[in-house]
Amino acid sequence: MAASTLSVTRTYCAEMGIDQERLDRAFGIVANAVHEGEMQTAVLAVATGSEVVRCQAFGATVVPGAGVESIYMLASISKAITATAVMTLVDDGLIALSAPVARYVPEFGAGGKDAVTVWHLLTHTSGLVDEGIPWESWRRDRVTAAQIVQSVCATRLEHPPGSRFHYYTGGFFVLAEAITRLTGMDYPDYFRQRVFDPAGMADISFNPWQEGKGQRVIPPVGLTDDGTATSAEVIRYFATLNWPGVALFATAPDLVNLGQTLLLDRTAGRSKILSPAAMELMSREQTRGIAKTEGDLVTPVRYGLTWRKGSIDGRYTLPGSADVIEHDGATGTWLWIDPAWDLVFVLLTNQNWAVMDRIQAKALATVYSAWPHSGPRSNRHAR
C-alpha cells in the first residue's frame, strides 16, 4: 500500500515554532478540495531546508494506490528545472547568458533570431511566440524531439528581443540541445548527473515507463479535449520526447529534495547544484520594466531566470519574501522555495489547470500563517 503521510512529530513542530493548528488547516484545504471533487488526487508537502515537516497524499479512494510516492507530470515546473541545468553551465563557464543562442546552436539564428540570447529564452522575452502547442497533431504524426528543435530554429521573430514578455515553451528544447552539444552528453543524462542525483531526486525522469516506474504515474485529468486520446496515452507520447519544457515526471519528495538543495545552495554557502552566486542570479528579478501584452491588456511580469518571483498576473498577492523562486505547471503542480523563511512548499495534483486562488494560493498562505518568521528554530544548514 502506498504511504499517505510522512511527518515530524507535533512536539517537533512546537519546538520549532510551527503552529500545528494552522498547518493542519492548510492540509485541510487540499483534503477538502479532493473530497469535494475539485481534483482526484493531491500530495502536499512542506519542509525546511533540513527537515520534511509534513508530506501527505489525498485521493487514494478515488485513484487506488495514490500516495506520497506517486509520480506526477510536472508540466512547466520542467522549465524551471531546465533553467537550473543551464545555470550549472554558467557556473562552469560554458554558457554566457548574454551570448546569442546561435553561438551554441547555430541553426537557431535563422529567421532573424541571431540577436536572441540565452537570457531572452530564459526570461520568455525572445520575441518568439507560440499560440498553443499543437501536441495533439504531434502525437498523431509521431513528431520527434529533433523535428521540434528544427521547427523552433526555423521560426521567425514576432517582436524585437527584449521588448515584451511572451511565454514561450519551444525555446527550452533549444536550450536542452545546447546542453547536449556543449557537454557531449544527452541532456537527460546531464540533468541526472548535475541536478537530479546531487539533490537526491530518486524518481524524477523524462520517461518513468522506460525506468520501470510507469505503474506509479497518475495521469492528469483534463489534458485532452478532442476525444482522440486519453490523458494516459498523451503523456506516454510526451515521455518519448524527453520534453525539457513540459514533461518531467516526479514525486513530491523529489521536488522537496530539489527545493531543499537549492535553498541551502543559496543560504549555506555551498554548491551542491549551483554556486551561491548562480543561485542569486537565477533568483534575481530579471523582467522589471517588461510587460506581457494581450490585446489592450498590459500586465507586468515578475520573473527571475525562468523561475517566477511569487506573483499572480504580475501582482504580489501571495505571501513570502523577495527571495522567493517558484513555478507551477498546467497539470496542477507547484514548487515554491523561500530561502528567507526557510520554506519549501510542494503541491502536486492531477487536475489540469487546478484553480490557483481557491486551492493552491489558499493552502500556501495558510502554511505561511503557520510558519515562524525567518523560518523554524532549527539548524538550517544541517542537511
Automatic annotation (TrEMBL):
The keyword DNA repair does not apply. PANTHER family: BETA-LACTAMASE-RELATED, BETA-LACTAMASE-RELATED DOMAIN-CONTAINING PROTEIN. The keyword Hydrolase applies. SUPFAM superfamilies: beta-lactamase/transpeptidase-like (SSF56601). Signal peptide: none annotated. Residues 30-357 form the Beta-lactamase-related domain. It comes from the Bacteria. Pfam families: Beta-lactamase (PF00144). Coiled coil: none annotated. This is CubicO group peptidase (Beta-lactamase class C family). GO terms for molecular function: hydrolase activity. Keywords: Hydrolase.
